[in-house]
Amino acid sequence: MTGKDKMLLKPTYLGPYTLANHIVMAPLTRCRAGAGNVPQAMNADYYAERASAGLIITEATQVSPQGVGYPMTPGIHTPEQVEGWKKVTKAVHDKDGRIFLQLWHVGRISHSSLQEDGGLPVSASAIRPRGNATTAAGPKPFETPRALKTNEIPGIVGQFRRAAENALMAGFDGVEIHAANGYLLDQFLRDNTNFRTDGYGGSRKNRMRLLSEVTEAVTDIWGGDRVGVRLSPVNTFNDISDTDPEATFSYVAWELNRFNLAYLHVVEHDMTGGKDSAGFNTQAIRDNFAGPYIANGGYDQARAEAALASGVADLVSFGVPFIANPDLAERFAAGAPLNDADRDTFYGGDEKGYTDYPVLSSHGANCLAEGCHNYL
Ligand code: PHB
Description:
8-stranded parallel barrel; alpha/beta; binds P-hydroxybenzoic acid; 28% helix; TIM Barrel; two-stranded antiparallel sheet
């Protein structure tokens, strides 16, 4: 690879921002919020350690008590949560990083035991996902969700709107609307979960109506250029699928153009690894979207550089590599080996596997100083 091909570490623009590089930290659920699903000091440390990413997108963050799907995931719907997130945004900004909050409603990927009123989770239609919900008492089979009534939809849009307002108060640089991975907005988009007969089901236009209304509300608060949308056309995680994902998501990408978004963020693979997405043309989605495209899904440095050099992506986001390598950008720059991620500490727990991954030493090779991790 020639120097000219190396774009990953060069600065770039996104919306009104100059980013230090083309490296994005993907949203990563870590289940380490404090009581009341409030971000705590440890979470601020974690994000600050990763501030050399061009852009951090936070872990998925519920927009309302109804939107929660797992214990210990943070929210953005109470004053305490806003205060908690202020510590995170300050810590990242103190290190000259940029950070967007991911706005999340899980829809049917919840459980009555996680709901404030003990009621059923909500979705586009009353279709029970295969698999288990993650409850405080361990895994429990998913329940059949309750289909949202048409007159409840403005309330869902309102949840995203208030969360977007709260994110602004918390000092974020922008927000990402989570319309991927089988959660609520994706449950409306795809045709194995949406059998509605009102204006929110049937045609692609109708299935996209909720995402359009949410995007309208969120861009009202933030302006389009500080809002991203995340999609996952071929992901079957959370028991979701579509009979024609290329047509559905090309349509969605095209329709999103009217919001002049900061970016479209696409999970290009199937997170379950179970389904062959061969034959699916990610480029069709990219070609239908006029703004910046963030590619995601098992990229390493070489593949990311190739995607940037050929123009098939404008930025690349990394998930698991960022769990284990807070200084991923520095490691890419140095051509240094990466730490391995410990899967046992991905979800829940304390600092172990969270804020204790070693960074490259500035002491030089073969440093023997106590506590010095030199991987060069
Ligand atoms: C997860 O908890 O495994 C998870 C959460 C949000 C996502 C994807 C996966 O978008």
